[in-house]
Design a protein that fits this description.
The structure is a single chain. Helix content is 9%, strand content 28%. The mean pLDDT is 79. Strands 1-2-5-4-3-6 form a six-stranded antiparallel beta barrel. A hairpin with a 5-residue loop joins strand 3 and strand 4. The N and C termini lie far apart (91 Å). The longest helix is centred in the N-terminal third of the chain and has 12 residues. The chain has a domain of 86 residues: Thrombin, subunit H, CATH 2.40.10. It is mainly beta.
Length: 138
């Protein structure tokens, strides 16, 4: 039977420059494979509030100054007791594109009118330009 010739070890004489390069290569840190991060939780879909309204007019504060911090809003698509909206926050979309958040403080009018008007208070004073802006109950 034909015998395989014994494999001779191949001798490579590396030049000093090559040896230097090899040392350099060994010093390079290994690139570790990236571990998969935990998948992000899906954001909850924003439920569009069915109740919205329109700013009717500004309530002038009794102080006589121009600190008008509340407005009267007529709400549409309200649920049965209007009192359930007291203390709820509303977002007013200004015509300039800015948003301002207020709180429904009281029901406007002696008896609940067909308009479902409520008074909304803000922290800042608002300008008359806010009239006819759209409001969303959060």
């Amino acid at each position: 039977p034909a015998t395989k010739p014994t494999v001779r070890p191949v001798k490579i004489s590396a030049t000093p420059a090559t040896l230097k390069e090899i040392k350099k290569v060994r010093a390079i840190p290994k690139i570790k494979p990236k571990k998969k991060s935990t998948p992000k939780k899906a954001k909850k879909k924003v439920k569009i509030s069915p109740t919205y309204g329109i700013v009717r007019n500004i309530v002038h504060d009794r102080t006589g100054r121009t600190k008008n911090r509340s407005v009267i809003i007529n709400l549409d698509r309200t649920e049965a007791p209007l009192a359930s909206y007291l203390g709820k926050r509303v977002r007013v979309q200004m015509k300039s594109g800015k948003e301002i958040i207020g709180v429904i403080s009281r029901i406007h009018g002696r008896r609940t009118s067909n308009e479902n008007s409520v008074v909304v208070r803000f922290n800042k004073s608002v300008s008359p330009h806010i009239i006819t802006s759209r409001v969303e109950v959060l």
